[in-house]
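Subject line: Sequence and fold of a protein, written as structure tokens
Body of memo: The sequence and its backbone structure tokens, given next.
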Amino acid sequence: MALDRTALPIALVIGGGAIEVVRSLQMAGLPCSVVSTPSDSTKYSSKVNSVFHWDWTQPLEAHDEALADRLVAWARAQAEPPVLFYSSDQALLFTSRHRDRLGRGFRFAIPDAELVEAMADKALFSTLAERLSLPVPATTILPPDPGAEPPDLSELGYPLIIKPERRDRGWRHIADAGGVKVKALVVDDEARLRAVWPELAAMGRTLVAQQYVDGPESAIESYHVYADATGEVVAEFTGKKIRTYPVECGFTTSLSITEEPDVLHAGRKLVELLDLRGVAKFDFKRAPDGRLLLFEINARTSLWMHPGARAGVNIPAAVYADLTGRPRPALAVHPRPVTWVHPKDLLAARDSGVSYPRWAAFAARCQATAFWSWRDPMPFIGMAMARVRTGDFS
């Protein structure tokens, strides 16, 4: 029997890249609205109401009380308090910092405010990791010092990676690999550090230098979890990147849902250690000796929600059920193997030496595809048309 969508509270997704979270909610038959970036093709969906557009890449101070009040006014106009999901770091921090105000109109699950700040800021996360003895690579915090000489990072050893305490527009300008955005800069030696340092120092931002863990991006594995208000792990699955674009320190273009016992064990231990509540993704990289080293924790929904739901673990639907007092959906104890692919994976495959026919055969076998749905094709078509208009195929 189909759900009566009009009788259900609305799920509102805020932040960039909302479409993959929306897809998981749609699979559960839940009504969705979004407040996404102007360039986010989620707005083209025939099954989603776009409340308004907001540029979530703006500095954090732009996401202020006025925005919170605007959202609460919309929420109070609904028949029932909507359920709020946040799908980007900026949206997470906005929700956390204005949780009391937003709580007047919304229902949402979120970790403790201090923990959110520590997970969203890589410098604070380094301090948290040291205090709790988390299994992270050796790290050095580089305070802002425009005009300073390059620091001595020989103790970390080369190669190493440098990343900002929080990615924003300024970092995207710096971290440009031939016109392609990267998450971090790989610094192979001291000469490379000296070459990039003037531009890094000019940012006037705290930076994080971290020991590079040898291995491809496919060695990055993750634990995805929803822990309820009591701390009980309600839903979980593990995953592994297949490719990223660019190939090194890039953004995920294809992935697989897995069932790795050591990743599950490591993730559960961290949930208990952190006394975590809400949704989180723990990113590990498997070192050549098999150890799992923790890179970061993202306490928000992400593109992994869609393939996870396809595998039988619909985390957003479980959160929605708990917050609205409805029965939880069936959640697979042993997730099905699912592969997800993004259109940019064609470029990632090309740069990895995979032929176009081999990639096409791989993509055809994938059970989940970014943007695409036969029942709701417009987000994919809108994204493709926008690429054609701008000429941005990177």
Q: What stands out?
A: The CA atoms of residues 71 and 102 lie 8 Å apart. The chain has a mean pLDDT of 92.
